[in-house]
């Protein structure tokens, strides 16, 4: 295309030079025509006739009919040659512009198709993220409820533990031989041990639930950010890019018509 532009600029310079040459030739011929017209109109009674003794001499640089015809024909041939060159160059340029505009239109259609597919993919990803976010919010709510239930269950173990430990402590106050390691003593010890193990198990479940909640909150944050990004992308691609590209010129307009 740059080479074609260079050729067009060079041809334009040549055309201007030929135009200037033809204008000068036309001006000379017009002036000669006016002189000859004046001569034809001269009569014996014309007021402008005078004696011109030196008029019979041949002036330097005068042309002959042959050279006059040659120069005239040369100018006309030059005009025709350069006009044909310009015509051929314009034809080549029109074909090139047509091909370029067609290629641009094809590429534009490909971009439109690719952009439309990308919008569909982005919208599907946004919907998946929103569905995942909904499921995550439900799991967060369930996990938060589980944590509350576990904390409540742990607190509920306090009273049985206090009762068992108080009983053991009271029994330690039995006098002398009455302070016996009897079956109730071992039963209370086992009860305290069982309650401790139960609390430990509940604390383990609570820790796991809190870790799960933290992970779910991280997932929720990531999903919310992802949804925000997808919505922004859709806004740019659909509401801005597609809207702007809907005004993309046709192949005819691209050729300059």
From TrEMBL:
- Does the keyword tRNA-binding feature in the UniProt annotation? no
List keywords of the entry alphabetically: Cell projection, Cilium, Coiled coil, Cytoplasm, Flagellum
Q: Which family does it belong to?
A: Belongs to the tektin family.
Where it sits in the cell: the answer is: Cytoplasm, Cytoskeleton, Cilium axoneme
Q: Extract the coiled-coil ranges from the record.
A: 192-226
Q: GO CC annotations?
A: axoneme; microtubule cytoskeleton; nucleus
Task: Write out the GO biological process terms.
Answer: cilium assembly; cilium movement involved in cell motility
InterPro entries the record matches: Tektin-like, Tektins
What protein am I looking at?
Tektin
The superkingdom of the source organism is Eukaryota
Q: Which organism is it from?
A: Timema californicum (California timema)
